[in-house]
Structures are given as structure tokens and as C-alpha cells.
Amino acid sequence: MATIGPLARIARLGSSICRNHRLSFNRSTQRRGIASCVDPSHGLTDEQKEFQKMAFDFAANEMAPHMSEWDQKEIFPVETMRKAAQLGFGGIYVQPEVGGSGLSRLDTSIIFEALSTGCVSTTAYISIHNMCAWMIDTFGNNEQRERFCPDLCLMDKFASYCLTEPGSGSDAASLLTTAQLKGDHYIVNGSKAFISGGGDTDVYIVMCRTGGKGPKGISCLVVEKGTPGLSFGKKEKKVGWNSQPTRAVIFEDCAVPVINRLGEEGQGFNMAMRGLNGGRINIASCSLGAAHASVQLARDHLLVRKQFGETLSNNQYLQFKLAEMATKLVASRLMVREAATALQENRSDAVSLCSMAKLFATDECFNICNDALQMHGGYGYLKDYAVQQFVRDIRVHQILEGTNEVMRMIISRNLLTES
Amino acid sequence: MSGRVLVGVKRVIDYAVKIRVKPDNSCVVTDGVKHSMNPFCEIAVEEAVKMKEKKLIKEVVVVSCGPQQVMETIRTALAMGADRGIHVEVTGKDYENLGPLQVSKIMAALAKKEEALLVILGKQAIDDDCNQTGQMTAALLDWPQGTFASELSMEGDKIKVVREIDGGLETVKINTPAVITADLRLNTPRYATLPNIMKAKKKKIANVKPADLGVDITSRLEVLRVDEPAQREAGVKVETVDDLMARLKEAGRI
């Protein structure tokens, strides 16, 4: 090994085998090397850049290589999520005294955006889990916080959020699951639909009716798996989000201790709405990650694929299209980060900004991923290529956490209500 | 002995970046390009932190030479578990010309100043692939060296090092204080955790200049020109082994 050349190649190979890195080039969904206009680290503090770098590394090494398998085999990657929890991702904005990382909403958005480049579906579940841990941390009493939060932050236990029912989606306040007080227990009857993680998780945050009709009659109960009367429907077959199981959650005379109620009776709906503000930023952040990864993939493809004697990157239509995609990505990112900042500062425009950011980012990012798929031509349609999974996985972000139509309701109400 | 380990870390262009040479062929483009810690330096930091966790040593001090930007690299090491950092400030032309000889002089001076038990470095940097700093540092200090380490164990006041060499694996036992350079299979570097990244903010990074350490960093080398490797040419297919032999002889390869 006398010459420098082979040494350099071996050193580079050696360093690229480091940490079991991506093995095949066309599966590479994450390029840390891009220092360009879509670099998501622009404008961040040094500390945020550290969080982001670490999340990107975790996504590239621990998630991206498995993203396709988790999707095709519908695997709930418990071990990988536990590894993520070891790094502090189980309760990112939960208080440190109960095991959380105590970070801000903006830090959280940056982290989910980075993790999402490795697997949208898994990151989305992690964000739901985080929201549940936060709800207990914020609205629970000290006994409840100490009972549930440490296990959730380490992901020794997993959580699910139960609001939606077969008969109440957008019209969440009309939910029918009842909880009747009998002594020191609530007897819960009803069913919840489309519950992420349902059946495989341990702790269920359930919104149910303890009082009269409408939002004021809703309370929040924490139901643990194994409680008699708690059962699950069949695992749904979905277009995307396949690394998390989705099931109906069924309550038949399920007795839940009163000490599992978060806050007072009638406060449930308020908690749900407050939880959704953060949840919307989280889901929008997941869309950002998918769009970022898709723009990288499209860019790489354009530089490699040749037709009519030159690479696609010389085609002005595609150049302009890529520019539009990049512009929409950065615009979405700015909205989401501003909404996160508004939420953590408790600004008066926080709720509408979160709705606007969710609406804009989920719509635009879906279009970006879809355009990226188109740029791949026929290859974009094959499951060997990651771009189709990004498209399928983020399609649902325009529907859940409040449909984009409901986002428009919130925003128009803000505009048209006399102040 | 202080039970202190000095770890050198280098900020290099990220391994995933496609490098380009400047149009004037003076050097590689570094402006605006993503940088990160040299992968072998990450392995060195990890090993030092592991030794501290096993209570074999007491303190991990991480050192980096360069301009303000190397503070990022030092902070990454602090987030991995190093206790404090030393930023040796070298800027401008001095930084461009900074090579293994200069860095090893600095490391040697710091090793003496900090009364280090061990100096652990990456075996080489992925930008210049010199593979010299560890060896030169040991020579300047007149300390034993265990390079290309794929396994380390403390045995009393000696260190057993399993080295990866061309012929396979070689085990040596060396006295401390010593210089170790980390090879690929020594360990798998940990991810910094969110709490550790936040704790790292409070850890101290001292600022020193080479002159403060009495080190002369003038370079003895002058880079004349940097070129990209020759474009790979198409190969030629041959029908028989005889053909192959004839072609190879023709090309002067055998």
C-alpha cells in the first residue's frame, strides 16, 4: 500500500462502512453533503444544529435502511423506537423531572423533520407518542405524571391517542363514547376508530363523555392495556403509515379508575384542542422531512438519468420544476417553524398559525413528493425506490390531526368572527 | 499520573460530500460545504469516553486546531461525553498550511502541559489521509505508540493494543504514557443524546494560541497544485487469457 490513492479509497470506504451506512446508492434517502438553499440547518442555533445533526444521523443509520421493509412487512419497529428513546426522543417536550428532554416546540419540529427523512410513518408514530406523554405531563397531577411519564419517555411503554370515533371525525365534539361514574371507577362504553398503535400500545389517552352533549361534557381518561373490557378491532390495511398498526379501540363496560382521569371532568376537549396544536406542527414537520428527502432524491436522479443525449438536469422544465419544489419546501418550513415558535411563546396567533402551517405544509409537501416521483419516471412507481413511500406515507397528513378542510374552518372563523 | 486522556479531533469535509477542486487548482472547495468530525476521530472520542465510563481514566480532554468553526467539532465531542475542550486557534493561511507536523507539535506540547496519560487520535483524516500525526506526536514526546488500534485494554500501567496491520492482527504491550491511533473496528461511536447535547453547553472550552504553547507552526511544505483524479477510461474486453497476457505486457503492467 505504497501509494496514496488506494489508501484514500480504503479510508473513504472504511469511513463509509462506519456505523453500517446505507449500502446501495439509489436507496440513499439522505445526503448530509448538501449545503444548498434547502439546507434545513439555516437559521438555527448551534445547539439546534447539534440536535438536528444527531437526528439526521439516527434517521440515516437506524431508520432509512429499514424503511421499505417496515412498510412492506408492516413491522412496528419497537427496538428502533426504543433506541430513539434512549437518545431522548421519547418525550422531547416533556419536563426533565419526569424523564423528558424539556426542549422547545421549535427544537421538536427540527428533530421530527430530520427523523422523518429516515421513515415518515415511524416518526409520525413517535410524534403521537410524544403528544400523549406531553398531555399527561401537562394536565396530569404529580402522581399521574410520575406513574406514566418516565416509562413513556423511555418507551418502555408505548402510547396511543383516542379521540376519533366511527361517527365523529372532524366533528370531534360530538363523540359518543361514554364514561359513567360508579364509585371510584368510570365505566366506559363505546369505540374509537383509526387509532395509531392501537392494540400494540400500552397506554391509551381516551376522550370520552362524562357529562352532557357538546365539548363541555368531555373528559380525558388514561386507560391501560389489559384492563378488562378493553379490546381491539382488526388491523387496518392502509396505503401508507404501515410501520404503525391502526386499529379500532373498543370499550365494553371497561372500568377505569377515577385516579386515571387527567384534570377535572369537562376539561377533556380543551386538552384535546391544545394537544392538537402541537400535534399539527409535528405532523407538518414530518411532511417537511419527507419533502426534503424527496427533493434530494429528485435532484440526484436528474443528475444521473440521461435521455436525448444529456442528463435530465439540463432540461429547463425540470430545472424550473425543481426550483419550485425547493421554494415551496423552504416556504413550508418557515411557516412550520414560525408556528412552533408562536406556540411555545403562547402568542395570540398560535392556534391559527398552527392551522395555517399544517394546511400549507402538508399540501405543498405532498405535491413536492408527488412531483419528485414524477421526475423519476417509471422508476418512481417501483417500490425499490423510496420516493413512492414518501408520497404514500405523507398523503394521510392532509387528513389527520384535523383535515385540511377543518384547518380552513379554523382560519376562516378567525377572519370572520367579530373580535 | 493524572488519569487524563487527550483526544485530538479534526473538522473535515463531511464524507458524504462530492468534493470539487477550485478552478485555479489551488485547493479543494471548502466554502459553504458541509463539514463534520473526522470519522476516525469520532472513534477516538468514543474510546476515551468508554474508558472513563469503565473508570480506567478520570478525564477526557478534547483538542482541535483551527478557526472558530472547529468549536462545533469540539462541542460534538463534548456531547459524546468528553469533559472539557481546548480550542487551539489557527486561522487563515496558517490553517490552510496546517499539517501533521504542526499538529503533532501542538499535541505534544498539550500532552506535556496536561500531564496526559494517553493521547488518542484517529489513525488518519479523511481529507489528507496523511496517517502521520499520531506517529509524529509519539516521536516528539518519545512515547510508545499503538497505531491502527482495533482493541485496547489497560493492564496495570501498561496498555495492550491489538493493531490491524497488513498481515493481520498484531498485539503489542506498551508502557504509558503512550499515543494510540484509532482504527475503524475499535468501536462504534455513540449518538450524542439530547440531554448530553444540552449538558455540553455548560462544559468549558479553553482558547489557546500555538505561540502560547511555544510551538512554531510554519509549514515546511508548499502545495503546488491540486488536481482531480484522471477520468476513468473505458475498459477493453478480451477473448482469451493469452490475449489478456499480451495486452498487459503491452501496457507495461507485467
From TrEMBL, chain A:
Domain named Acyl-CoA dehydrogenase/oxidase C-terminal is located at 266-416
Q: Which UniProt keywords apply?
A: Branched-chain amino acid catabolism, FAD, Flavoprotein, Oxidoreductase, Transit peptide
The UniProt record lists the Acyl-CoA oxidase/dehydrogenase middle domain at 161-254
Recorded GO MF terms: flavin adenine dinucleotide binding; short-chain 2-methyl fatty acyl-CoA dehydrogenase activity
Q: Does the keyword DNA repair apply?
A: no
Q: Which InterPro entries match?
A: Acyl-CoA_DH_CS, Acyl-CoA_Oxase/DH_mid-dom, Acyl-CoA_Oxase/DH_mid-dom_sf, AcylCo_DH-like_C, AcylCo_DH/oxidase_C, AcylCoA_DH/ox_N, AcylCoA_DH/ox_N_sf, AcylCoA_DH/oxidase_NM_dom_sf
Task: Name the coenzymes or cofactors required.
Answer: FAD
Coiled-coil intervals: none
Any Gene Ontology CC annotation: mitochondrion
The enzyme's main class, written as a single word, is oxidoreductase
Keyword Flavoprotein attached: yes
Family to which the UniProt record says this protein belongs = Belongs to the acyl-CoA dehydrogenase family.
What this protein is reported to do is described as: Isobutyryl-CoA dehydrogenase which catalyzes the conversion of 2-methylpropanoyl-CoA to (2E)-2-methylpropenoyl-CoA in the valine catabolic pathway. To a lesser extent, also able to catalyze the oxidation of (2S)-2-methylbutanoyl-CoA.
Name the record gives this protein: Isobutyryl-CoA dehydrogenase, mitochondrial
Q: Please report the organism this UniProt entry assigns to the protein.
A: Notothenia coriiceps
Its gene is: acad8
UniProtKB/TrEMBL annotation, chain B:
User: Which keywords appear in this protein's UniProt record, sorted alphabetically?
Assistant: Electron transport, Mitochondrion, Transport
Which Gene3D superfamilies does UniProt cross-reference here?
HUPs
Q: Which residues form the Electron transfer flavoprotein alpha/beta-subunit N-terminal domain?
A: 25-217
Q: Does the keyword Mitochondrion apply?
A: yes
Question: What Pfam families has UniProt attached to this entry?
Answer: ETF (PF01012)
Q: Which domain of life is it from?
A: Eukaryota
Q: Which GO terms describe its molecular function?
A: electron transfer activity
The record's subcellular locations are:
Mitochondrion matrix
* Assembly mode: Heterodimer composed of ETFA and ETFB. Identified in a complex that contains ETFA, ETFB and ETFRF1. Interacts with ACADM. Heterodimer of an alpha and a beta subunit.
- Role of this protein: The electron transfer flavoprotein serves as a specific electron acceptor for several dehydrogenases, including five acyl-CoA dehydrogenases, glutaryl-CoA and sarcosine dehydrogenase. It transfers the electrons to the main mitochondrial respiratory chain via ETF-ubiquinone oxidoreductase (ETF dehydrogenase). Heterodimeric electron transfer flavoprotein that accepts electrons from several mitochondrial dehydrogenases, including acyl-CoA dehydrogenases, glutaryl-CoA and sarcosine dehydrogenase. It transfers the electrons to the main mitochondrial respiratory chain via ETF-ubiquinone oxidoreductase. Required for normal mitochondrial fatty acid oxidation and normal amino acid metabolism. ETFB binds an AMP molecule that probably has a purely structural role.
Q: Which family does it belong to?
A: Belongs to the ETF beta-subunit/FixA family.
Q: Could you identify this protein by its name? A: Electron transfer flavoprotein subunit beta
